[in-house]
Design goal:
2 strands; 9% strand; two-stranded antiparallel sheet
Length: 199
Amino acid sequence: KAVLQQDSAFTIPIQELKRIPIENNLVESSSDLQIIKLECEQQYSLLGLEKNKLLPDISLGYFRGSNKYSNSETYQGFQIGLAVPLFFGEQKARIKANKIALDINQNMRTDFLINRKAKQEELRIELIKFEESLQNYEDSGQNLSDEIIRTAQKSYQMGEMDFFQFAVSIENALNLTLNYLDNLAQYNSLALEANYLNK
């Protein structure tokens, strides 16, 4: 109450723990991959820009002006220009650098895809392992745990076992349930990671 700063009593409802469903997310639709693709496109555009700088530049302009003296007239004119690059060394080096950067971005994209698919496969294998364990408990383990508790209680009440044997039987039954809950928690953690891996 002190931490929540509430005067009234509150209760936490008991909810049955369930498996988190796994979504089928495509690696190609992940936001990380989209960022890498955009970086590749930007690098490709920069490469095209650097290549275009090797071409002659044509400029065309219109001007209208006057001078500051009295009885000045308005002058109109056109201006045409042609700029031809004479030295290509620096520009060729920039083009080469942009090609290398583009190759790096494409290799990063390929590496990202390989790593992401490997991570997905690793998660899938782990999920299958935990799913088999969970299914095993749901099929027979829960009934076995309940039966061990019921048998231990009856045997203890009838005097067929002492308290130590009763405690060991109850502990074994509870360990089955605790193992199930641990496996369920790990399964759900992996399912969350798999669901949000490609978002």
